[in-house]
Amino acid sequence: MRVDFFIGVFMFQHSASQLLDLSTRALEMAQQKGANSAEVDISESLGQTVQVRLGDVDQIEHQQDKSLDITVYLGKSKGRASTADFSDRALNDTIEAAINIARYTAQDECAGLADAELMAHDIADLDKYHQWDISSEDAIQLALQCEQAALNNDKRIFNSEGASVHAGHHQFVYGNTHGFLQHQKSSRHNISCSVVARDETGMERNYWFDGAADAKKLQSPIEIGKIAAQRTVQSLGAKTVPTGIYPIVLDSVVSGSLIGHLVSALSGGALYRQSSFLLDSLGKQVLPERFSLREEPHILQAAASSYFDAEGVATCPRFVIENGIVQSYFLSSYSARKLNMRTTANAGGTHNLYLNHSHDTQADLLKDMGKGLLITKLMGQGVNLITGDYSRGAAGFWVENGVIAYPVSGITIAAQLQEMLLNIQGVANDSVPYSSNKIGSIWLDKMTVASA
């Protein structure tokens, strides 16, 4: 018999106790079928997304998904299978499938659960779950307000790609045969708007977005619409710049991608595969001395916060880079074993990265830079993490005497990632509010800029 658990206008199909019981049964069944060890991950998500365009409802979508993933180990052989059916028969068949996969999988000395002594024990509430009891009708009204605010903001806004409102609710259980078993819930709600502006020089498109665990902390739909419009019209009349070498500031909307490349290069998978430009970088300088990169996994309401990673390993605040020097990598238990190291509790990803700032605002960065480019858009995928080669299409603004002079488009920026990171001159305290990573605008000393 199915029992629905109401959360306002939404319904979870299972309670926490039901998911915990299902996890326990799956682990016991896996061991009964011959697994030396096993781990299970059960998730359930539900929500709705509404989108409007030019005053009409464009889409109403309700989501309700669930899955059970079971991983078993026969010695050092691994098998994994999944199902969206939580019935006893489906559970039995899924575990049998995982067992059969393991039987025909080669032994891997690095495979297996994370070490038992690393499991998390002190687990507190991170305040990540806030239900949003919003009906489709009310969500439509918010989206219409958002779009109308953008369209009314400037007469040059002549078209819309739509405004959307999303309410998302999630719960999951992770357990393994070390005896670790935990249930958590989280929510992620957002509002976005994208519009098109036109003048005698051409057309431009831009957007704005905000997301939060608690819908009460979202920017208002009207504010989001206004920002989307302002970002769009600011780009009208864009020019190019002569090919040359210029200092640049990466706006906080795009600066996180630079740190993302750094994270990828310091991640275990890239390191043990010898596919990183930062091989053997422990103890070496990769940022200027005044900058440090911290991981803060226990920040309340942050999307990436957790007291344990995807293997149940306890997380803790730490410096990944301190005073420019690499102190640690991003490792799961598997990649750690491949490198003869210890997991850093990053199975499943990072947990809230913080790059310290040197300037209060982006305006302070621009003033100190004087002349150069403010990059607000990046296009293309021209990044090679093995060599560090970096080349991407870009758009933004030319800065003269420390202030924005005019919009710029049709350019490519290029450098080596190693040099870009070491040439960071300043970081502003202006990270975008919806990101769990707090990376502000970044001022780089010089990059090659080519006009299209």
Description:
- The protein has 452 residues and is α+β, with helices and mostly antiparallel strands.
- It is 23% helix and 37% strand.
- It contains 9 helices and 18 strands.
- The chain has helices at residues 16-32, 88-103, 136-153, 221-233, 252-265, 268-272, 333-338, 362-369, 417-422; strands at residues 5-7, 10-12, 37-53, 56-74, 77-83, 157-176, 181-199, 202-212, 244-250, 293-295, 318-322, 325-326, 353-355, 372-379, 389-400, 403-416, 424-427, 442-451.
- The chain has a 6-stranded antiparallel sheet. Strands 9-14-15-16-18 form a 5-stranded mixed beta barrel.
- The model is unreliable at 1-8 (pLDDT under 50).
The ordered H/E elements are EEHEEEHHEEEHEHHEEEHEHEEEHEE
What's the assembly state of these chains? single chain
Query: How many angstroms separate the termini?
Result: 63 Å
Shape descriptor reads globular
Q: What structural category do the secondary elements indicate?
A: alpha+beta
Instruction: Report mean pLDDT, rounded to a whole number.
Output: 95
Radius of gyration from CA coordinates:
24 Å
Spatial strand arrangement across the major sheet:
5-4-3-6-7-8
Summarize the structure.
The chain is an alpha+beta fold. It contains nine helices and 18 strands.
Which short descriptors sum up this protein?
452 residues; alpha+beta; six-stranded antiparallel sheet; 18 strands; 23% helix; 37% strand
Chart the SSEs and their pairings.
Blueprint: E1 5-7, E2 10-12, H1 16-32, E3 37-53, E4 56-74, E5 77-83, H2 88-103, H3 136-153, E6 157-176, E7 181-199, E8 202-212, H4 221-233, E9 244-250, H5 252-265, H6 268-272, E10 293-295, E11 318-322, E12 325-326, H7 333-338, E13 353-355, H8 362-369, E14 372-379, E15 389-400, E16 403-416, H9 417-422, E17 424-427, E18 442-451
Helix pairs in contact: 3-4
